[in-house]
Fold this sequence. Notes:
Radius of gyration: 21 Å
CATH topology of the largest domain: Transcription Regulator spoIIAA
Shape: globular
CATH class of the largest domain: Alpha Beta
Order of helices and strands: EHEHEHEHHEHEHHEEHEEEHEHEHHEEH
CATH architecture of the largest domain: 2-Layer Sandwich
Number of strands: 15
Number of domains: 2
Amino acid sequence: xxxxxxxxxxxxxxxxxxxxxxxxxxxxxxxxxxxxxxxxxxxxxxxxxxxxxxxxxxxxxxxxxxxxxxxxxxxxxxxxxxxxxxxxxxxxxxxxxxxxxxxxxxxxxxxxxxxxxxxxxxxxxxxxxxxxxxxxxxxxxxxxxxxxxxxxxxxxxxxxxxxxxxxxxxxxxxxxxxxxxxxxxxxxxxxxxxxxxxxxxxxxxxxxxxxxxxxxxxxxxxxxxxxxxxxxxxxxxxxxxxxxxxxxxxxxxxxxxxxxxxxxxxxxxxxxxxxxxxxxxxxxxxxxxxxxxxxxxxxxxxxxxxxxxxxxxxxxxxxxxxxxxxxxxxxxxxxxxxxxxxxxxxxxxxxxxxxxxxxxxxx
Length: 363
C-alpha cells in the first residue's frame, strides 16, 4: 500500500423510492433539493486539500444514477480541478436498472467512469415487488446488456435470504452469461424502522431461516468457484483482476475521504464522519472519533479475517494485542479454521459464513 495514495467516496442520498429493507441514509428528493445538495457537496470537495494521489473513486448511495447529467458533471469537474487522479484509477458508480439509460451510460464513459455496480438484488418479479424495488427482471437484464456496450467492468448485487428465494445461484448464472465480472451477494438484514421490519414482525414477510440461508450461500459459493469467480471477501466474488480496488483499500486500512451526508473519512489514523441529516450537513457538522487502539484492533481483526487480506500479527503486536496468546486462537489454528502464513493469519474460506462467531472469540 502506498502512503501517498488515497480513495474518495461520494455519497448521493437520493432515491426514487426507498426500498423496504434499506437502512442507509437516503430519501426521495426533488430537483431543487438535488441542486442544493450538489452545491454543498462540491464546496465540501473544494475545501479539502491533499497532496495525495487518488487511486479509486466510488459514487454510492442512495441511487446515484438518478442524478441529472449536469449535476454529475459538476461533481467530476470539481474532482478533476481539486485532486490529482491516477490515470488508471478505478472509478465506480452505483446504478439501479430503472434509472439507467444509454444516454447516461454514454456520459458516464465520457466522464471517466470505468466500473458500474448494478443493484439487481433478485431476478424474481414477485420478490422485487415485495421488497419495494422499482425494476423487474427484464429491466435488470436490459440494464446489464446496455452497460456492457460501454463498460467491461460490471458488478451486480444479489440478496440472499429473501422470502421464497431458493437457488439464488441460478441468478448468478444469468448474470455471468450477461457478462458480469463481479458479484456481491449480501445476506438479508432486517433493520428496525424499515417497512420490512414491520412486515416481519407481523409475519406478513417471512425470509429464509438461518439454515436455509446457509444452504443458499454454500450453493452460490460452490457455483461461483466453478465459474472462476474467486471469493475475496465474505460477500464478494470476482473474476481475476475485477476485484473492487476501492473496497480492498477499506479492508486494508488504506486512507479514504468521504464527501456528502453520512460519509466517513479515515486520514492520518483519524476517523471523521459527516452528519446524518441534511440540515446538519449543510451546516458543516462533523464528528471525529477519538484515537482508540482497542477499536483499531477490533476493526483490523474483523476486516482482515472477512477477506483474503488476513490480519498482520505484527501490527496487532504494536497496538498492544498478541492474538496468538488467545486460547481460542490456538484452538482455531489446530482445527484448520485459521491458518498462518508468515506474519499474517487468515480465516479458512470454509468458515466465512461463521466469521462473526470466530472473530468474536478472538477479541
